[in-house]
Amino acid sequence: MNWELIVIGAGPAGLAAALAAYDKGLRKIAIIERDRYAGGILNQCIHNGFGLHRFKEELTGPEYALKFIDRLRDTTIELICDTMVLHITPDRQVHTVSAEKGYQVYSASSIFLAMGCRERPRGAISIPGDRPAGVFTAGTAQRYINLEGYMCAKRVVILGSGDIGLIMARRLTLEGAKVLCCVEIMPHSSGLARNIAQCLKDFDIPLYLNHTVTDVTAANGRVSSVTVSRVDANRAPIPGTEMVFDCDTLLLSVGLIPENELSREAGIEIDPRTNGPFVYENMETSMKGVFAGGNVVHVHDLVDYVSEESAKAGEGAARFVSSAENADEAYIRMLNGDNVSYTVPQRIRPGRLEGSVKLFFRVRSKLGASVIKVSDASGQELASFKRLSMSPGEMENIFLPKEVFQKARGDISVSASEA
């Protein structure tokens, strides 16, 4: 069977894209998921706080996923679980393997990439010391406790202040563990401000900024202590600032990496700023007919934005299949200027715009009252926006109307500075 759209991944991005494409008229849609059921990472996120933007109500992760899964049951979309995608090709062949069906190749008129992201492990950050049991990524501990029912820690140090680590600080505390501290090498948290307040401050868990783990000690094969040191401006440990915490667990919340092995192998262009594909205004990648959305493109704060972005990609895939958007067109590159680390989408085709473009970006450092400036290659200011404050842990977005791109002379850059 030749599918109109194959979606790789049944997390919030994949579900939103498939349903959006269905609403735009596609009927031959398959979602391929390596896990046993749909929902993705949301299934282990049993805390609330999801859905405030999209559904105007506060939901847990499983409840948010169920909103989409319930809709799926009323469509002709086929959900293929327990199946791993091995390769995708430029002619949109999808190679898969499963215990039930073995090796299979599916053909598609369009593909949507929704593989999400993975956590950065210990080996990627070169933590010195012993290599014992008791060192987990925060997401692994979350799965153990929330899905598998294992209490994996009693006394805990958390390295990194990403949102998953912050949420696990609260979760472990509620389950009876003692979270000794959260340690962050940067001078600011990498998580949402609301999570700092609700997960650390509300439980009197100290957050040590400008600190990192400099040693891990083991006893009987398990973590027995962790040494934390202050770092200087170059992030090098300062001798004499060591603090030793007796603990049995070190949780790592040191960043997420978009899962793009499939994308790279297929030859899709990857943006080194985001580690995700370059995408156009409709979330199409550099490979014609292949779209991407959610954390596979760039790491989001809120699942509401993942769903919104992916729905736009699903609509783009539907237009592509209907042959309404198959022509090559000139594009404008979106560049990061002063104090901006990346922009998404990275390429805008003005000829395809009907209204405005929602542009996502992150700033490099914490700012107070600020101004965001949008300028073209000639230095002409095209737009500006004010903010009360900005932080690297909070993803920002602005809307740029079609007129901005029509006026632009060359590529466009986005910069941020204190007012």
**Helical run tally:** 8
Q: In angstroms, what is the radius of gyration?
A: 22 Å
Oligomeric nature of the chains: single chain
Proportion of residues in extended strands: 25-35%
Number of strand elements: 27
- On the 0 to 100 scale, the average pLDDT is 95
The percent of residues in helical segments reads: 10-25%
Structural class designation: alpha/beta
- Shape call: globular
Q: What's the CATH H-level superfamily name of the largest domain?
A: FAD/NAD(P)-binding domain
Uncertain ranges: none
| Count of folded domains | 3
Distance between the termini: 57 Å
CATH architecture of the largest domain: 3-Layer(bba) Sandwich
Task: Characterize the biggest β-sheet.
Answer: 7 strands, mixed
* CATH topology descriptor of the largest domain: FAD/NAD(P)-binding domain
- CATH class descriptor name of the largest domain: Alpha Beta
Outline of the structure:
This protein has 419 residues and is α/β, with parallel strands linked by helices.
Structure notes:
The chain folds into three domains: 1-119 and 255-326, FAD/NAD(P)-binding domain (3-Layer(bba) Sandwich), CATH 3.50.50; 121-254, FAD/NAD(P)-binding domain; 331-419, Immunoglobulin-like, CATH 2.60.40. The strands form seven sheets. Strands 1, 2, 3, 4, 5, 6 and 19 form a seven-stranded mixed β-sheet that branches. Strands 8-15-9-10-11 form a five-stranded parallel β-sheet. A five-stranded mixed β-sheet has the order 22-20-27-24-25. Strand 17 (270-271) and strand 18 (276-277) form a beta hairpin. The protein has eight helices and 27 strands. The relative contact order is 0.13. The radius of gyration is 22 Å and the shape is globular. By secondary structure, the protein is α/β, with parallel strands linked by helices. The mean pLDDT is 95. It starts with a strand and ends with a strand. The protein has helices spanning 12-23, 61-72, 138-148, 163-174, 193-200, 261-266, 303-321, 402-407; strands spanning 2-8, 29-32, 78-80, 83-88, 93-98, 102-113, 117-119, 135-137, 155-159, 178-184, 207-209, 211-219, 222-230, 243-246, 249-252, 256-258, 270-271, 276-277, 290-292, 332-336, 340-344, 347-348, 356-363, 370-376, 381-387, 396-401, 412-418.
